[in-house]
Design brief:
Bound molecules: iron/sulfur cluster
Distance between the termini: 40 Å
Number of strands: 18
Structural class: alpha/beta
CATH superfamily of the largest domain: LarA, N-terminal domain
CATH architecture of the largest domain: 3-Layer(aba) Sandwich
Radius of gyration: 22 Å
CATH class of the largest domain: Alpha Beta
CATH topology of the largest domain: Rossmann fold
Strand content: 15-25%
Largest sheet: 11 strands, mixed
Helix content: 25-40%
Length: about 475
């Protein structure tokens, strides 16, 4: 039996129209929501003005919940659950996405995955990186998972569609494990835990280039299916991407999760592939390495070495370099002239050999645990020793906290301690976007977005709500 994927035209965020399209899609695909139904959107980051195109829109969620309620049988629970971008409390992203009103309107539950118990789940595939993954209890308990990704290009993995949206089911302690040169393998591992029973992608306004600060593209489409590989393969073709170049899709397909060959998929709906492709001729990606990414006009420059793992010696696509790009795009969104106004910074990552040829007023961030360098800065001998651990040396049961407050304090304190020095070694594998923001703001003298009044009050309030709720959930064993 060929997998079916439906592409439907939908030009605007009209909840009633979305509900009708999704209901028809569920019926055509034979998807019957039942039992514990969990809807998993993508709210990696959300803000109506600062990050308007990064997340599954509330009107889309509204429409899908309405369609789900109209078709569901033997319902025990309908809930919306997610873990947004790390360190940010998911409450904060949900509020900025406008979800609480929609959730209240439909009388459904919310599961903030950063506030609930994480359960070890054994996974058995021969090719897996790990034998177990830690997953929020509501995901493990769900009977019918509805995956609601945002249709976006991704600067680390080319596309983020159904498969990649599962990165948002892990909490901060476990999300950064293997979020490095093994990111694509990790995404494939996550498919072993649970498979969505229905997928609807918000491609009404799609995102180009970046994942947190995408350039909007009015794609005008809703993509639906019941198999992640099939849906992602169709999504790739919609924007002229080769599915085989989306590594996690290739790995997941090789592990038997579904097709990667378009001829093995029946494409249905009222938006034919040729018409979609004609419309998306100018759809833009950003799979650029950081070496020359910031250009001569920027006071940020990068020196990139080699990386530890055989399969990707020349670059680490899933870790620090991409997080640097995303953090700079956040700065640019808030302060458009940041590249010229920031102090000179050299970002050094990987195993680098030879002199750095620094300008007199240039500071150095040695980024990440894999970074090694030996040389002289201002006549002083400097030796940066690598501390990288390959996946079999990392114990997923002994992960460190990535708490927002703790990370902010430790990164800013480290930057303060190194105030008089020309360089700093920022350790971690991977270093998150938020850590990059803190280090860059401290060393380059850029205003820290964490303290921007448009974000800081709500962020702080949500953070303490999250901490209290997590504490009570632990007491109750929830
Ligand atoms: S330290 Fe950063 S760049 Fe190096 S392997 Fe880890 S994630 Fe990649």
């Amino acid at each position: 039996m060929k997998q079916k994927v439906i592409i439907r035209k939908c030009a605007d965020y009209d909840s009633d129209k979305i509900a009708g399209i999704v209901r028809e899609g569920m019926e055509e695909l034979g998807a019957k929501p039942e039992g514990k139904i969990l809807l998993k959107p993508n709210t990696v980051i959300a803000h109506p003005e600062l990050f308007p195109h990064a997340f599954t829109r509330k009107e889309f969620l509204d429409g899908v919940i309405a369609a789900t309620k109209s078709l569901a049988v033997n319902v025990n629970e309908i809930a919306v659950g997610e873990r947004c971008g790390i360190v940010i409390p998911t409450r904060f992203s949900f509020k900025n996405a406008g979800y609480p009103d929609i959730i209240k309107k439909h009388g459904v539950k919310t599961h903030y995955f950063d506030e609930v118990r994480q359960v070890p789940v054994e996974i058995k595939g021969q090719e897996n990186l790990r034998r177990q993954l830690f997953i929020p209890k509501p995901v493990v308990d769900s009977d019918f998972l509805i995956n609601l990704p945002k249709f976006k290009a991704h600067p680390w993995s080319r596309m983020t569609l159904s498969l990649k949206n599962f990165i948002g089911i892990q909490d901060d302690r476990h999300r950064l494990v293997d979020h490095n040169q093994f990111l694509e393998h990790k995404i494939a591992d996550l498919q072993e835990v649970v498979q969505p029973k229905f997928i609807a992608i918000d491609g009404i306004i799609a995102g180009q280039k970046m994942m947190l600060t995408p350039t909007p593209f009015p794609l005008g489409a809703i993509v639906m299916g019941i198999n992640s590989c099939a849906v992602d393969t169709v999504g790739c073709h919609m924007v002229h991407a080769d599915p085989k170049e989306v590594i996690h899709l290739r790995i997941a397909s090789e592990r038997g999760f579904g097709p990667i060959d378009i001829t093995e998929i029946d494409i249905l709906g009222d938006f034919p592939m040729e018409e979609v492709q004609e419309h998306t001729k100018g759809f833009a990606f950003c799979m650029e390495k950081i070496d020359d990414y910031f250009g001569d006009d920027s006071n940020l420059s990068c020196t990139v070495g080699t990386f530890p793992e055989e399969h990707s010696r020349d670059y680490c696509w899933g870790g620090c370099p991409g997080a640097l790009q995303e953090s700079m795009h956040i700065f640019r969104g808030l302060y458009p002239d940041v590249d010229k106004e920031m102090k000179k910074i050299r970002y050094v990552v990987g195993n680098v050999k030879g002199p750095l040829n620094l300008a007199d007023d240039e500071k150095v961030i040695f980024a990440g645990n894999c970074t090694r360098w030996k040389g002289e800065i201002d006549g002083e001998k400097v030796s940066i020793e690598g501390q990288y651990k390959s996946p079999h040396e990392v114990d997923e049961t002994k992960t460190k906290s990535n708490d927002m407050l703790l990370k902010t304090i430790t990164t800013l304190f480290q930057a303060y301690k190194n105030k008089g020095s020309r360089y700093l070694h920022a350790k971690g594998c991977t270093l998150s976007v938020a850590e990059h923001v803190n280090y860059l703001s401290a060393l380059a003298g850029i205003k820290n977005p964490h303290f921007d009044p448009r974000l800081s009050l709500g962020l702080t309030f949500s953070y303490w709500q999250m901490r209290f709720k997590r504490f009570f959930n632990r007491l109750l064993g929830a």
